[in-house]
Protein 1
Amino acid sequence: MDKWQQQEFPMTLADFDFLRNLAYSHTGIVLPERKKQMVYSRLSRRLRTLSFKTFSQYCRYLETNTQELPEFINALTTNLTAFFREKHHFVHLDKQICPQWLANKQKRIRIWSAACSTGEEAYSIAMTLYGRIDLNLFDLKILATDLNTQVLETAKKGIYSAEVLPTIPANFSSKYTKPLPKTEHFSIKQRIKDLVHFKQLNLLQPWPMNGPFDVIFCRNVFIYFDSETKKRIIKKFRTLLSDGGYLIIGHSESINDFAADFEFVGQTIYRAKQRSAPFLSSHLQQLQGAE
């Protein structure tokens, strides 16, 4: 007998195909055969919660109960993150990008943390810039989005385990965090929280924002997409980036196959090439028509 039929919750090949096709259609995440154990492990929690005995029951439930779809997506999506993860990106933001804004006296600054998970990336960006930019002179806003509604609730609260406090540079943690008495947690201070606006967003669905953004962080996301999905999202990023704006991706990712609109400027850091206004207008119309 197939080992998947001997598990706590039997899963047939048809069940797995249904689940991975559903995940792909709604999130763009590709789940090959080798991810079957991960799918089983993460969704088993939902089956226990719903008192189902088999994955076939759960698949039928998904077909008839649309309200379960967010729970399904939340269970499947990966949320590994950390404060100042891939530190060189924040060094580049501090030492290379920010001085350009100051030199150009650029008053409006917009940054997007796509796939922000529980908020550590967005707050790391805010801490990096808070002491470098005079908020009385500059209009700085950070948009942070994620597909997973549960992690966004954690992000909005800005409360984290004291165990991760050492991952924040000491000069930042002393100024921008505060311990929560009688707990093993700390909170991000309000002045940092005020710079970040958290919103739920599915990268495969229409994007409500107009841009332009000066920096887009989209790290460790493309590894879950197939080539066509990746290409489509990169093109949409370009339409929302200002000329000379930056796209920052994860350490194991590359956009070289789709990088005609970008130039490589640093480790997994790309800068948007100059484009004419008519081209961008036409390109944006094409993308909107394809959605």
Protein 2
Amino acid sequence: MINRRLRVVLAEDSVVLRDGMVELLGARGCEVAATAGTAPELLAAVAEHRPDVAVVDIRMPPTHTDEGIRAAVEIRERTPATGILVFSQHIETALAARLLAGGAAGIGYLLKERVARTSDLVDALHRVAAGGTALDPEVVTGLMRGGRRDRVDALTAREREVLELMAQGHSNRSIATRLVVSERAVEKHVAAVFTKFGLRATATDNRRVKAVLAYLGLGAD
């Protein structure tokens, strides 16, 4: 059970949706340190409050195109310890790739219509705050279409299933439950992925994140 209280900055230009999310997140044990309706307000709020996670809508005033993603990229550059969770009505594969190009650690991208429960959103916030990933399955599919297939050709069908669920942010235990296999079996598949991708264990590298980037065709050669 998750007990740590997360500090969140929420960027959403719809006042009704923003207020509703503040109430829902507060009821789930999150502290919404500030809200923002524009990208400049978001940047100022993150700089002031240094939250665990910034929840960002892609399309914000004034043009409602990519202001949110541009702000998210800037947040990553200025305060890399702040996680980013894009929460959008749209699948913007090119924009997601732009954000992930700087590294997938602490990055999430969820579609609003697919978050059926507030607990799903809060779980994603905690994964992102801890340096993990939380990518919507449709976003993963879209990124894979533009990725390099040769990176995954060496994987078995089961290993690809495991890696896709890793990209969505699932733990080994969660993957085991979804695939109806033992957690030990999942550990073996994950280890095989690391080996085939040439990802050696180090004191600082997050191999799960590196494997996800390679899977999506965004990792370094």
